[in-house]
Specification:
This protein has 6 helices and 19 strands. It is of the alpha+beta class. It has 2 domains: 149 residues, Schlafen, AAA domain (Methyltransferase, Cobalt-precorrin-4 Transmethylase, Domain 2); 141 residues, Immunoglobulin-like. It is globular and about 75 Å long. A hairpin with a 4-residue loop joins strand 18 and strand 19.
């Protein structure tokens, strides 16, 4: 199940999601400016979405859809936002097929340069006007909101530096993949846990692996502190068991022809979530992790001496 489908099915209006029945026509330009600005200023750490063609009722969502011939080109919206909001907001507007209906999706991303505000007067909005999304409402930004924006300038970024998960640390029941973790904010960040999710190219989750360390095995008490303006690079260690090769269709040689999607989700001490994904990753398995696969195929396995 992809992210947008999940939002339509189960999502509710909040600081990263809004539903609109109709597209923003020319007479609704001011509404578009305020909605995009407010979402961009939201405290949510991740992509924000405005989904067009859905009426959100207390009793449930009603799918209205958009006539394909009436779909508004994203360039019209981008020009309006670029001309009136500073700094520049990164967003896309695109069609999305949902159960036979066409919906419009605004995806607002990379909003780490807050605050976003009006750079000139527009209709009833004055220069410097600044809104922030709070829950399901847009509100005027207050002093405390600006303090939060400036103190949290920058971002926490996860980058995968290789495309393969290596399940070779059988003594610790772990697999590893090289990552870079960057804290470009002005505040320290302490990671207190995380999970690596592995899915097939149809979006079906095959396995999940808890984070247990970076360069060394810590276990369930894993914590990682990153000072302001710092970066660490290392082998991220995640749990792995002899049953996982079955879920990932690994053969007795530790290989598989399939490619996987990896999503790493990390949680900090303030309960913020950070994520990163890679497509077309691979998994390599060796050692005692393969004993169950070999046993199923009638192949003898010689355990390592530490067993």
């Amino acid at each position: 199940m992809d992210k947008i489908y999940e939002l339509i099915e189960y999502g509710y209006e909040c600081d990263y999601l809004d539903f609109k029945e109709r597209q923003y026509n020319k007479d609704k330009s001011m509404d578009l400016i305020t909605d995009i600005m407010a979402m961009a200023n939201s405290r949510h750490n991740g992509d924000k979405f405005i989904i067009i063609g859905v009426k959100d009722r207390p009793e449930g969502k009603e799918i209205k859809g958009i006539e394909p011939k009436d779909f508004i080109d994203s360039s019209n919206y981008k020009q309006l936002i670029m001309n009136n909001i500073e700094p520049e907001i990164q967003f896309d507007y695109f069609k999305y097929e949902y159960k036979g209906s066409v919906l419009g999706i605004f995806r607002i991303s990379s909003t780490d340069n807050k605050p976003y505000m009006l750079k000139k007067k527009y209709e009833r909005l004055n220069e410097g006007h600044c809104l922030i999304r709070k829950g399901s409402m847009n509100a005027l930004a207050k002093r405390s909101d600006f303090d939060y924006m400036y103190l949290n300038k920058g971002q926490f970024e996860i980058r995968f530096l290789e495309q393969s998960l290596h399940a070779v640390h059988d003594a610790d029941d772990c697999a590893s993949i090289v990552v870079a973790l960057s804290n470009t904010t002005e505040l320290p960040i302490t990671i207190i846990g995380g999970t690596l999710y592995i899915s097939n190219n149809q979006g079906e989750e095959l396995s999940r692996h808890r984070v247990y360390g970076l360069d060394e095995f810590i276990g369930a008490d894993f914590k990682l502190s990153l000072p302001p303006k710092s970066e660490v690079v290392g082998h991220l260690l995640v749990g792995f068991s002899s049953s996982d090769p079955f879920r990932l269709h690994i053969d007795e040689y530790g290989l598989c022809d399939e490619e996987y999607d990896f999503e790493l989700l990390l949680l900090d001490a303030g309960q913020k979530k950070y994520s990163a994904r890679i497509r077309q990753g691979s998994v390599f398995v060796d050692g005692d992790f393969l004993w169950k696969v070999k046993q199923q195929k009638g192949i003898p396995h010689k355990f390592r001496t530490y067993r």
